[in-house]
Amino acid sequence: MTVTGFDFEPVLIPRKKAFAMIGVGDTKGHELMNAGLLDARKIGGKTVITMASIRAFADSLPCVPVKGDA
Length: 70
What we know:
- With 70 residues, this protein is of the alpha+beta class.
- It has one domain (12-60).
- Helices cover 39% and strands 17% of the residues.
- A 3-stranded antiparallel sheet has the order 1-3-2.
- The longest helix is centred in the last third of the chain and has 10 residues, at 51-60.
- The N and C termini lie far apart (39 Å).
- The mean pLDDT is 91.
């Protein structure tokens, strides 16, 4: 099973699950959608986020420098 909870890599992730995958709540998730950083689509009344945009967003975040042992 993958980290998404599916037995395969999905193309579209339900909005709340996508937000949880990147560790943000509803407010921040909607900000990211509105800024175009997460690609949201509609299937009927359901909002889904593309897996490609989730990965692209994660890859765009800066790395945290690792400090050596003191």
